[in-house]
Structure formats: structure tokens, C-alpha cells
Amino acid sequence: xxxxxSQPLMDNRHAGPGFLVEPGFVFMAKIxxxxxxxxxxxxxDYQAIYRKYKWISLTKxxxxxxxxxxxxISGIEYFTALAxxxxxxxxRHNIFIKAQENEGVKIFYGQFxxxxxxxxxxxxTFKKFEEKETDVNIALRLxxxxxxxxxxxxxxxxxxxxxxxxxxAVRTTFxxxxxxxxxxxxxxxxxxxKHTDFHYRMxxxxxxxxxxxxxxxxxxxxxxxxxxxxx
Length: 231
What we know:
With about 230 residues, this protein is of the alpha/beta class. About 30% of the residues lie in helices and about 25% in strands.
């Protein structure tokens, strides 16, 4: 699937998901987005004022960072894992995933693994779930998509410096391709900025313009409602 940039065309129409572009319009660069789901989620969850933006269209959000109207989005992939031990979190997450899939976003799943931790205060042992595989999956896809020539520019939505080795490898192996990052709101990553071709800082104006309405209608006519604690 190829989306056109959301920037206005000469006749003031907008090209984006579901829109046609002018006859003879030539795309300049294919842009592929790789979204680190938990890095974005925790950035939004950190401050209460941003939690309402968990109910967000990734398609629209990625469109905010296509700055040349001649470029096109060739794909958006979302990397995450399911908290299967928590029914409430799982239900909310599945609603969000269904909303993204409705817009053509492809989902890649990692997993959570439990580890035993010891309380420093009382010495009791408890289990803690840690998300695994997301950074590895993003790294593999970044390289795989470059080999397949699926992008001219790859944009990673994350502030995770664990992705640096993959970014450096792609930039070295494919010098004609560019890799950029969108740093989630409230986060900083000077190392990522230093070792990418370009970077964007996520701002609230981007989030506010891309939040879904509280109820959305899917392609099959069914509806999804924003989880109450995301409002």
C-alpha cells in the first residue's frame, strides 16, 4: 500500500489515505515508518495531559513528518507485545490495534517475559514482566526493507538507543538511503539525533491533530469506541 503525502497539492486538494493524486504527479521518495509501540506508549503515559493521545491514528501521525508533498508513505509498521496477564490492558490494546489495522498499518508482535525480582526493602520475591524483541524486530525490518528496496527514507518513531547498531549498519551498507527518527514527546535522545540523517521532535500539535474521535467507524461498518480511561 502506498499513501501520498498529506501536504496540499497545487489545486488545494490533499493527498493521503483514500485520496487520489493529480494525473502525472511524480513521487520523489518512498518513506517507510517503523513505530516502536511501547516507547511511544510510555512517552504518552508519563504525563497525564498526554494520556488522551493514546487514542491516536498512527497513519495521520506519520503523515505529520512527511514534509515534502512529493514524497509518499510506502508503509507503516507497528511493533508491540500483548500484556496477556492483564485483561483490561489487553482489551484496550486490542481495540487500538484494530483501529490501526483498519487504516492499513501492519502489526509485528514481540512478547513479554516474566522475571523474578527481589524487593530491596523487605526481601520478598515477586514477578515482573519485561517486554522483549521489539528492538530486535525493528532492527531486522529496517535492514530487510532496505534489502528489498522498500524505502528511500526510513523513519523510526522511538527514542530507544538500542536501535543505534541497526541504524548505523543500514546507513553504512546502503549509503543512498536515509534513516531518520521521530523522538516521542517528552523524550530526548542526542545519540539517535547524532547518528541519523534527520530527526523530528514530536509535539502536542502533532498529537492533537491526529487523535481519533471518541467513536470511529471501520471499513466493515462496525464501530470502535475509545477506552474510557484514554479520554
